[in-house]
Specification:
Layout: H1 12-41, H2 47-52, E1 65-73, E2 79-84, E3 92-96, E4 101-109, E5 116-122, H3 129-143, E6 152-156, E7 162-163, H4 170-175, H5 181-200, E8 203-213, E9 219-220, H6 223-226, H7 231-234, E10 244-252, E11 257-263, H8 281-294, E12 306-310, E13 317-318, E14 323-326, E15 348-351, H9 357-378, E16 381-383, E17 387-395, E18 400-402, E19 408-410, E20 416-417, E21 423-424, E22 427-428, H10 442-451, H11 457-463, E23 468-470, E24 485-493, E25 496-500, E26 504-505, H12 507-523, E27 530-534, E28 543-544, H13 547-552, H14 555-558, H15 566-582, E29 623-625, E30 630-632, E31 636-643, E32 659-664, E33 671-676, E34 682-688, E35 694-701, E36 709-722, E37 728-736, E38 740-743
Parallel strand pairs: 5-6, 11-12, 25-27, 26-28, 30-38
Antiparallel strand pairs: 1-4, 1-8, 2-3, 2-7, 3-34, 4-5, 8-10, 8-16, 9-13, 10-11, 14-15, 17-24, 18-19, 20-23, 21-22, 24-25, 29-31, 31-35, 32-33, 32-36, 34-35, 36-37, 36-38
Helix pairs in contact: 3-5, 8-9, 12-15
The protein binds zinc ion.
């Protein structure tokens, strides 16, 4: 020891040891420094380095919020139910390509966790008023006043391949063949369950936002309407669609990844109206890819990471990027009426970018996923700041809009124009209707007047130049055909403002709305807000075009149901919400008229469930056509079973898995499940026979990266057995294919 009075002395050995240790430490520091620099240049860092050179990563910062994410199935019945979107009566479910999910995200204030925002993106055509009211009621009975109409946003992805039947207004009730309880229950239960999962998993975390452009994934499907907008306005934008994706990344305080929400404007109509398999379309495929990557080793639909690809101002945005062609002659039909020389508008369909709709879905979904991954990986702009939300119910039939000091206009009672019946290049209508119609047709007017009643002169004048096909706001039997009371809702998470719109805003409508909301925040002392539009929220009111686009009366304008000043009304209303949030006066906003709930019976045109029957000397689940003994990767393994109606398996809105692909493990005779029916590589087809007989065919499109080995395919169903005239039960059964070998190419 070296005391004050004693002279320090070291032996020669001690000196050598000390010098050696000092040298070793110096070398270690140099080596670690070099290692750190080389690792950092590759974008990685090891935890040991953090001790020496603190990095600005998640572990060193404080959480700003409590965050929760959750995903739950909301598929519902996959057979005999009309698919929601194209309004094509022939397009009913006949099986399943992928499951549909509700993805929920909760952000809560760290200091006061009763302040919350809930954002739900569900793989459905749109959120209906009935669905929202039932979800809010369930949330109220479960959580009291924690989740309310002002802080819960429900948004549909707008897939056109989900089951319909969850609407209370008569127009949708007619096109969906009634109020279909199994569909509605599956949606209500799935959405509430996803929120409950998020609620149970709240943890301290951080939010980051990023944005970037997605190329080669959209076209404007009404470019001639877009051109009606003022040249000075159009010249501010480089494209006739919004290519920007905004992405919100969620991580735990310790850096653990939780999930993401992205908003991007594209119609999920890569699957066209000839499809009969329930699926979540291009944006659902993007979710699938992201979640599969982050939930490694899990089956599709499982795992804690949740990636939502939510809708935005997609009103005039098609994913069918090769554009419209006449399906009979092959020539382009990119004209103001979208018509073909032979066959008219019914022949003019957009397609691409793939060889078929499955291919196109994958290409667009993959594009969206790849951009999201890049934005997610590079997201560095942190969101901080308080949470707020504002909501009003508004009678949209009766909104006065001050355009300027001297000019006041008014919205109209709902009505659909002639071009609504023409459909779009993503899904054509019927008969001789064409887009861009500014005059009615005496033949159809006559039929309408006889069957449904003539529109009043007031409504006609209010909607001009729209020729009215259905004056839905004046049709009230058996219940109103369209909503008058509509939700407007706005929520902020720090500098991010989410505008929840009740329909499909076109590109330019969305731009005007975002700009107006941003300006309102700016002028009330909250500059620099990032405003995103969440589409298809809360109640469905079809489309919202600009006033100028409205004049051209293509499909989107004919479907702008509250008349030419619909957009101006929404801009006024959402500015009011923004002002209330910026000035902390949202609690003083009048709540507005509560939406009605109609007492709708269970009358539907969906065929009633009958007793299932197996063919003579066969049982349910028996194989009718076997798999081959061997397949190469890239081929399609296919097996057909004696089946039963898939509706038996989801009768009460319950979740069900119809199939597995299983691999024989090398160590034992055990089978390991490697795919289920939520996979994009499996397809479940149901074909109905006569006298209660039916078949199920399962396809497995064997991916290139499949592990070689021995596999089998299994089917899980329920057959309906009559116990008495009024009583029946669903009996579970299963079937298994022979084993087959998957070999290399
Ligand atoms: Zn749409």
């Amino acid at each position: 020891m070296c005391g004050k009075r004693s002279k320090c002395s070291f032996s020669r050995l001690e000196v050598i040891l000390i010098v050696f240790l000092v040298l070793m430490m110096a070398v270690t520091v140099v080596l670690l420094t070099l290692h750190f620099l080389s690792e950092e240049s590759h974008g990685k860092c090891l935890s040991t380095n953090i001790l020496l050179f603190p990095l600005p990563d998640a572990t060193n910062e404080r959480a700003n919020y409590l965050l929760g994410v959750g995903r739950a199935d909301c598929t519902g019945p996959v057979a005999e139910i009309p698919l929601m979107g194209y309004a094509n009566p022939k397009q009913v479910g006949r099986g399943l390509l992928t499951h549909l999910y509700s993805r929920a995200f909760i952000v809560a204030d760290l200091d006061d966790d009763s302040r919350r925002i809930v954002f739900v993106s569900a793989d459905i055509g749109m959120v209906s008023q009935r669905l929202r009211l039932e979800v809010l009621e369930k949330l109220r009975s479960k959580y009291g006043a924690l989740y309310r109409q002002d802080n819960v946003i429900l948004s549909g992805t707008h897939t056109h391949s989900g089951p319909g039947g969850y609407f209370q207004y008569t127009l949708f009730w007619v096109t969906s063949k009634g109020l279909i309880r199994p569909t509605l229950n599956a949606l209500v239960n799935g959405i509430v369950k996803s929120i409950a999962i998020a609620h149970q998993n709240m943890r301290r975390g951080r939010l980051f936002v990023n944005r970037g452009t997605v190329e080669n994934s959209q076209i404007n499907r009404s470019p001639f309407s877009y051109l009606e907008n003022p040249a000075s306005e159009r010249s501010r934008y480089s494209s006739n669609t919004d290519k920007e994706m905004v992405l919100l990344k969620m991580v735990e305080e310790d850096g653990q990844e939780l999930g993401l929400i992205s908003w991007f404007a594209v119609h999920p109509v890569s699957m066209n109206n000839s499809n009969h398999l329930v699926n979540s379309d291009n944006v659902g495929y993007a979710s699938y890819l992201f979640e599969r990557e982050k939930n490694k080793g899990m089956l599709p639909g499982e795992g804690p990471f949740v990636a939502a690809f939510a809708s935005s101002n997609l009103g005039d945005v098609s994913p069918n990027t090769r554009g419209p062609f006449c399906s009979n002659t092959g020539e382009s039909c990119n004209n103001p009426q979208s018509t073909c020389p032979v066959g008219g508008a019914t022949m003019c369909m957009a397609r691409g970018p793939g060889g078929d709709m499955f291919d196109s879905t994958r290409i667009i979904g993959q594009n969206i996923y790849l951009k999201a991954r890049e934005l997610y990986d590079q997201a560095a702009q942190e969101i901080t700041g308080g949470l707020s939300s504002a909501h009003q119910w508004v009678n949209m039939s009766d909104v006065w809009v001050e355009l300027n000091a001297t000019h006041t206009v008014k919205t109209c009672k709902p009505a659909l124009g002639y071009s609504f019946a023409a459909g779009t290049i993503d899904g054509v209508g019927a008969f001789n209707f064409t887009q861009g119609a500014v005059e009615g047709d005496p033949f159809w007017d006559g039929i309408r007047d006889q069957l449904l009643g003539e529109p009043s002169n007031r409504t006609k004048a209010c909607h001009a130049p729209k020729p009215i096909l259905f004056s839905t706001g004046e049709m009230t039997r058996p219940h109103p055909w369209h909503p008058d009371v509509v939700d407007v809702q706005l929520a902020t998470i720090g500098s991010l403002a989410i505008v929840a719109v009740p329909g499909e805003f076109t590109t330019m409508s969305g731009r005007r709305l975002r700009e107006a909301v941003k300006k309102e925040f700016d002028s009330h002392g909250t500059p620099g807000m990032e405003v995103v539009i969440a589409g298809l929220c809360n109640v469905y009111t079809h489309y919202i075009t600009t006033y100028e686009e409205y004049q051209a009366q293509r499909y989107e304008a004919a479907s702008t149901i509250y008349g030419p000043h619909t957009l101006s009304a929404y801009i006024q209303l959402f500015r009011g919400l923004a002002r209330a949030l910026a000035t902390h006066t949202a609690q003083d906003l009048p709540p507005g008229p509560e939406p009605p709930i109609f007492n709708i019976g269970n009358l539907t045109l969906v065929p009633p469930l009958v007793a299932d029957r197996a063919p003579p000397s066969k049982a349910f689940g028996d194989v009718l056509r076997e798999v081959r003994r061997q397949y190469r990767v890239g081929e399609v393994a296919e097996v057909t079973f004696v089946g039963a109606n898939p509706r038996n398996s989801a009768e009460n809105g319950t979740e069900h898995n119809f199939l597995t692909v299983e691999r024989r493990t090398s160590t034992s005779e055990d089978w390991q499940v490697v795919q289920n029916d939520a996979s994009w590589d499996t397809r479940f087809y149901w074909s109905k026979g006569i006298f209660g007989q039916s078949k199920v065919t399962i396809e497995w499109h064997i991916p290139q990266d499949t592990e070689l080995g021995v596999y089998r395919i299994r089917y899980f169903g329920h057959y309906r057995k009559k116990l008495s005239i009024s009583k029946a039960v669903s009996v579970p059964f299963e079937g298994t294919s022979s084993a087959f070998e998957v070999t290399a190419l």
